[in-house]
Amino acid sequence: DDIAHVMPGHPAELLNRIPGVHINNLGGEGHMTAIRQPITTQGVYLFLEDGIPTRPSGLFNHNALYEVNGAQAHRVEVIKGPGSALYGSDSIGGIINTISQPAPAAVEWSLNPEWGSYGWRRFLTSVGGPITDSLGIRVNANSTQSTGFRDHAAYTRHSGSIRLDHALGLTTDAVTHIAYTSVQQRGVSALNAADYHHRPHHNDYHNSVGRRDVQALRISTAITHTPSPHQEWSITPFFRSNRMQLMPSWMLGYDPNDRDYRFQSYGALIKHRYQTADQSRVLITGLDLDYTPSTYTEYRLTKESQGSVIVNTSQTSTRNYDFQANQISASPYIHTEWQHQNLRVIGGLRYDYFSIDYTDRLTTPQTAMHRRPRSQVRTYAQTSPKFDVIYALSPNHSTYATYRQSFRAPGIGELFRSGKSLQTDQLKPVQTTALETGIRGRLTPALTYSAAAYHMVVNNDILTVTDATTRRTINAGTTVHDGLELGVNAQLNAQWRLHTGLGLNRHYYRSFTDKDGDYTGNTVARSPVATGTAEIHYQPVEHATIALEGEHVGGYYVDETNTDRYPGHTLLNLRAQYHVSKTHTLYGRMMNLGNVRYSTYTSKQVGPNRPVTYRPGQPRTVIIGLKSKF
After folding, report:
1. How far apart are CA 237 and CA 294, in angstroms?
2. Which of 143, 169, 406, 549 has the greatest count of CB atoms below 10 A from its CB?
C-alpha cells in the first residue's frame, strides 16, 4: 500500500518512512544508507531480493539498491540492526529485502507513464496471467531517464523482470525470477560552501567525467516441497552476473582512475523447516553456498580541465591494478523457536566461512601510490549467535528483547586495492554485539504503535589513519551506537490518517586515536542526531486523496574532530491521487515543496585547511503520472 501511495522515484522516498531508517539521494538513484549507523559507504548492510543477497559478501556497493526495481516491488521488508542466524556477513546496520510481484491469478496488464521536472520521464508497465492451470507469469519493465537538476548530471535506467510461479504438484511449488537492470549515470561533484549557497546546479564534472555504468543480471529458482503440514524443504539455486564501469569521482583530484568490476556468482540456499502440530516448537536448519569469481582492472587517467571544471578524461595504457579474486562461502545455520502460553523464545547460531583466492595479474613493480599485496589465499570464519524473547502482554500488545552478534568480512577492495596503505591484506573482520528492547501493539482498532531502544558496540572497525610517512587502513577503534525509534499509525476518522516514523541516535567513538588527535568520546562523523517523517493523509471523497509529508534530518558533525557541523534540514512533500475511473488513476507529487536549500551529504577530510563539501539536494520537483490497470 505504501509503494502504491508513494510511487517512489528514489528508494529514499519509500524507505525513509520507516522509523530509524535514512537513505540519502546522491543523484539519479545513487544513495548512502544510515540504519543504526552513520551515513556511510561501508559494507554494513545486506540488500536482498526475494531473500537472496543481490551481491556476495566482499563486493558491497553502497548504491546497490539501484540494481533492484523497487518501484515495481510487491513489498519491501526492513530488518534493523544485526541480522538473525538466517542471514550472514554484512548485516550489521540492517537488511533490506525487496519481494517481487507474484504472477496474477487472471490476465492483467498495467501502464504507468510519468513526466516531471528536470527531464524526468518514467514508464512502468506490467503484464501477467496464467499460462496453464499450473503455471503463471508476470513481466515487469521500468524505463527511467532524467537530466538532473545539476549541470551534466543525466541519468537513465532500464529494468526488466520475469517471474514464473509453477505448481509442480500438490506438495511442490517453484518460483523462478529473472531480473536485469542497466544504469548509466554521469558523475556529480561535491561543492564548496560558496557554490553550494549561490549556484547549487554547478558541477565540476562535465560530459562523462565521473560516470557510472552498471549491468546486473540475477536468476533464481526457489523450489519448495511440503510433504506434510509439519515439514517444508526448500532449495534455491541462483546465478548473478554483474559488471560496473566506474570513474570514481571522489578520486579525480588526487588519483584519477577508471575501473572495471566484474563478477559472476553460482550458489544455492538450502533450508528445512519443522514445526509441531500445535506450532509451539519450530526448528529451521539451513546451508547457504556461494562461489563468486571476480576481476578488477584499474587504468590511470589523464585529465583535461578548464579552471576548476574537469571537462574530459583520457584512459592511459598504465594499469594500476589488475587482479582476480575467487570467493567461496559456506554458511550452515540453525534457528529454533519455543512457545509457551504468552512467552516465545527464539535462539539461533550461524557459522560463516569465507575463502578468497587472490591473484595479482600484473608483473610491473608496485608504486608507493598503488601498493599491491602478493597473490595469496585469505580465509575468514565467524560464529554468530542470537537470542530473542517475546512476551504477549495482551492480545494487542507485546514486548521483546534481543541479543545478537554479527560481523562483516573485509571487502575485496579493502584487502587488495591498497592505494598508499600497507598490509591491507591483514585486515580482520568487523564484529558487533547488539541489544534491543521494544514494545508494539494496537491501542485501538485505528491506532498502532511501535517503540524500540537499541545499544550496539562495533569492534575492529576498519578505519584509515595517517602517520608521519604514509596512510594505513587498519582495524582500529571501537564505536558505540545507541538509539530510540518510534512509529505511530492512526486512522483519526474516516477522512484523516496520520503516519509518523522517528529515530533518535547517538554514535560515538569509545576509542580511536591517530596522529591528528584522540577522538575517544567524539561523535562519529556524519551521524544525524534525529531522522524521521510525519505525514497527514486526507481523503475528502472516496476517489481522491492528498497527503502532506514532513521529512527531517537532524544536524551532524562533518568529521571526527567535531568542529564543523551541518545544521540539518526539514523538507515538505505533497502527494495527491484522483481515481478517474476503476481503471485509471491520475496522481502527482511535489518534492521539497518549500524549495529549501539543503545538502544530502556534508563532509570534511580531517586535516589542516580542508574545506567542508556539500552535496546539494534536489530543489522543488513536480512529477505527474497516470496509472492504468486492466
Report:
1. 19
2. 406
